[in-house]
């Protein structure tokens, strides 16, 4: 988005942002254990999920309904072996803050990184967000022994029903710029993949009550898509 456009719409965008912060329901992170083992079999895949409010399960009641629960179960089913999973997530974090979540991270094979929305909200430039992801990737390898990292996309924020227009449209423009940069960066990184976004955000029935975070049906679709990607495109190469 051009600086001139932001300046021209500045007063309206500020008013809408403040109003949205005041009126949007503040949903809690999902309750329940943030680590465990699912599935059966002799083999074990270590899975680490790192990220923001969507990783933390905001929008549903329990971690079993959230991304961590859905992804770990779907992955164990596809692989026919056990998945030892751990969730390190906190609402509101940017890509630059994500490495602070790794203090208690256990060794794992694959990491799923869920950041980007708060980079857009906090007006972080795409280049700065990529530099932060590079630092996070290094920390994942050094502190948890990660062999592969899956970068989830920056969602198309112009489809977030909880945001008013034109704030929604402009946030979507920024999110698209972040996503384009992320796709190019991930393609050049060894041991990194990017899963394209193809989830029905336009369906309000799949979203949480705030119109911003996923609801249980969307977490299920997201977890299944990630599980399919890891099982078919990642794990066989490790």
Q: What does this molecule look like?
A:
The protein is α/β, with parallel strands linked by helices. The chain has one domain: Rossmann fold. Helix content is 42%, strand content 13%. The chain is built from 8 helices and 6 strands. It has helices spanning 3-8, 10-23, 53-56, 67-79, 117-121, 126-144, 167-187, 216-234; strands at 35-38, 44-51, 82-89, 110-114, 148-151, 192-194. It has a 6-stranded mixed β-sheet. Helix 7 (167-187) links the parallel strand 5 and strand 6 (192-194). Helix 4 packs parallel to helix 8 (216-234) and helix 6 packs across helix 7. The longest helix has 21 residues, at 167-187. The mean pLDDT is 89.
Q: What characteristics describe this protein?
A:
Rossmann fold; six-stranded mixed beta sheet; 238 residues; 8 helices; alpha/beta; 42% helix
